[in-house]
Amino acid sequence: MRPFSGLLLLAWPVRPKGWIDSLDTVPTAPLYVACSSGYYGYDCGGICRCSPADDCLDGLTGDGTCICPPGPADRCSKTSVPSYVYTPVIHGQAGGAGCRRHGVYDEVAACTPTSHKHEDTAWFPLSFQPASLLQYTTLDSCTRRGQRQVVDSFISLAIPTPLQERLAVAAFSASVARLLLGNGIDEQALLHHEHFARVFSGSALLEGTLPIAYNYGGHQFGSWSGQLGDGRVISLGDIQVYPSAERWEVSLKGAGKTPYSRAGDGRAVLRSSIREFLASEAMSGLGIPTARSLSVVTSNDTVHRDMFYNGNVIGESAAVTARVAKAGAWMRIGTLELPAKRGDLSALREITNAAMDMLYPYLSTIVVSGHQERPSKYAAFLYEVAWKTAELLSSWMVVGFIHGVLNTDNMSLAGVTIDYAAFAFMEYYDPSFVPNTTDDEGRYAYIEQPKVARWNLERLASALKAVGVTEEEKEIMLQTYDEAYEALFYKKMARKLGLVVDDLHVHCSISDRSCDRAGTSDKALRGVVDQYLSLLQRGHVDFTRSFYTLLKGLTCSPEPHVSPREIINGMKEISDSNYLHAWEDLEPFWSEWLVDYERLLSGSEEGYCSARCIQRLRQMQSSNPTIVLRNYLAHEAIEAAKQGDFSQTQTLLEALENPYNQDHNHGPYVAPAPQWAMHRGIRELSCSS
Questions:
Q1: How many helices (H) and strands (E) would you count in the chain?
Q2: Which residues of 353-380 are buried (b: 16+ CB within 10 A; e: fewer)?
Q3: Which stretch of DSSP H or E encloses residue 506?
Q4: Active site residues
Q5: Residues 213-235: pLDDT tens digits?
Q6: Structure pTM?
Q7: Which residues pair with 231 in a beta bridge?
């Protein structure tokens, strides 16, 4: 072996004790690209046990299946698919019982064979540790790759299927690279490392990688769907980030089939991969909790998709997205629902305790006591998830984000945005807008999202009933969610409108189960917010640009002033041209609203002056993005990428990473959607990806 030699030197902001400045000590891992003949599995530890006449599916992506080659049938033993023949090899010898059963984290970590692998000559500048959840639960004992019901584990071995044709990096986030590896890295050296595309497409594995897929269930469109799981997502494991020591999990979406693929092919297409990449980074730029994306790797491999489920199947380029999230963030409401629905109380306790410890470790001090006002630890966990969900949903709503597929299997217990599919950011304000073409009933419309999230939390409470959460505690949780969401929504809208209201401190106490909503009793404030949204709807005004238009109509010198004519004309300019005829009737209502708005701006505090006015304008600038990921912007980047031009994706990414930059107001990405983009296929999309 020779160590990685010179492309990249990692530099942590605060270096761990004992760190030595030498390339020989950079935390790297050798890259393995093939197994010796007759060995298979993610670490080449499986030994083929086929008869001499049979062929064996060996290699990194093999599973040991014995296949009869063409010829007389009596040449072969019976073709078999081994239910369990995996025997890891440690230092060239068969592993012990602990390794054979793939038990808990420590036993898995010990299974590090050193033989039967074909090593590449280069080392890669990072390494993975087994996913954190393996510290709390066992790995699925069956290693067969085919689709099946997994009833004894939340985690299954899932070996990536390499892309076969020429690989190309279609998108790359330098900020995520810095998040994982430190601010001192050379992002371009990482990107252009000869094996970057192979590692992050699943075409080669680093030593120490334990590729897995997660098992979970879920309610989809209101109906229980049973076991779902990661049908095309394979986790490579965790990276420990310095100096925080946080663990971030890296997973590959579109990396091939898993035991949960059902009828799917385990792949993703370039179109949806770029959308998810841009969406996750756009949401991060907006300051909204979200999973992140490091890269998109595409190839000439073709997969077939029926984009609108109308029988029109077309070939599209395959792609793999490297997604990144804090350890535990991929645990969903559906993760807890599955063991509850199966009546497996032991598994439910195990996975719930794991979620608490990984996501809310401070709850471990809460124990059931004789004091009736103190909730159980499971009720406290439920309250925390409700609070995080309220915070997330309020953040979505004030930037006009519509998730599109808000099933319980797409809602993280950590309160972060995951699983971007048929999403959209609001164009012309329409609270009933549904970006998902398969949502015929409008279940996941923009205005319905807070209600659907509440419904999903009810499903979580129902799952936790088996571990002692009472009906009373469920009702307290729902009340907590309702009050927290309302308080947070109006707080954030007040900031967007420049209405300073004592910071609207909101806190929900676990101990006394109360929610302090300081400031939200102001009916005048809420009335101004509600009326503003109503006027946007009636005039079909662009949601994002409306706040900037309002901002342009406010002046602070020589004294605070609102310019009604400038604001009204500005709103008309960013309205849907098909509805301009309605403005003759709307103008008096806008004038009336602006009087109330100015009164609230200046009359809510004593000594209102130019300095205070400037403070409010700055607050509006920091609360209102100049750019969001409009579907037509993503569409243009995707169309260019299909032709091999990935520069538009990167240029758009750079703008989305700084959405509050006022310079964007005069850039190419701020205009409302043109008429050609206001149709199905751009404005609305399906889940086909």
A1: 18, 25
A2: bbbbebbbeebeebeeeeeeebbbbbbb
A3: strand 506-508
A4: 409
A5: 999 999 999 999 999 999 999 99
A6: 0.84
A7: none
